[in-house]
Amino acid sequence: GVTASRVANAPDASAPSFTADPGMAPLAVIQIDSPLGHSYDHPAPGTVPPFPTDSTLTWAQPLGSYFGSSVWIARTEDGSSCLLLAADAKSYGQCVPADLFARGSLRVTVAYSQLTADERPPALHPDQSIAYQWQPNEDLTIVIGRDASR
Q1: Is the pTM of this model over 0.70?
Q2: Cβ partners under 8 Å of residue 25, min gap 6
Q3: Cα–Cα distance for residue pair 112/128, rounded to 1 Å
Q4: What is the tens place of the pLDDT at every residue in 66-80?
Q5: What is the C-alpha separation between 19 and 22, in angstroms, rounded?
Q6: How far is CA 33 from CA 63, 85, 100, in A?
Q7: Are 92 and 9 in contact (CB under 8 A)?
Q8: Which H, E and C letters describe the chain, residue by residue?
Q9: pLDDT tens, residue by residue, 104-133
Q10: Positive or negative CA dihedral for 23, 105, 94, 138?
Q11: Between 93 and 46, the higher pLDDT residue
């Protein structure tokens, strides 16, 4: 595995919840064919960005670029699932234990103010955030809504 270092601004897993705007379709749904992301090319050694965990990564997978960030998922030796948004200036990430992941608790949000004008989707308003949510069914959805912690 790859030993990961901390992401400085990783959100707190116990932070208040995010509420997606009702009636708004997801900005994107990224289908992951398997827990290991077999439908994607494996990253070259040394190209995996640091994830917010002290545990060793057993695998990491890039899913593409969305709204100014490269989206990555990973699993650790202790069974945690991780989601990371790697951007030029900042990275946002979270790792959660298997039981929290099974309940759909793996989410990373990015506020309007943290995105440049070119990165913001047209439907995003100043009081909103984009949430990247890796679901236990293996889909990753990107939605607009409000984050109670902001």
Answers
A1: yes
A2: none
A3: 6
A4: 999 999 999 999 999
A5: 8
A6: 11, 20, 21
A7: yes
A8: CEECCCCCCCCCCCCCCEEECCCCCCCEEEECCCCCCCCCCCCCCCCCCCCCCCCEEEEEEEEEEECCEEEEEEEECCCCEEEEEECCCCEEEEEECHHHHHCCCCEEEEEHHHCCCCCCCCCCCCCCEEEEEECCCCEEEEEEEEECCC
A9: 889 999 999 999 999 999 999 999 999 999
A10: negative
A11: 93
Nearest to 63 by CA among 146, 138, 116, 137: 138
User: Cα(52)–Cα(29) distance, rounded to whole angstroms?
Assistant: 23
CA trace torsion 86, 103, 12, 37 (10° rounding): -20
Burial zone of 89 (CB within 10 Å; 0-12 exposed, 13-18 middle, 19+ buried): exposed
**Residue matched to tokens 């992951």:** 32
- A 10 A CB-CB count for 101 gives 20
Closest CA to 60 of 94, 29, 30, 83: 83
* Residue 39: how many other CB atoms lie within 10 Å: 11
Q: Are 48 and 2 spatial neighbours (Cβ–Cβ below 8 Å)? A: yes
User: How far is Cα 139 from Cα 2, in angstroms, rounded to an integer?
Assistant: 24
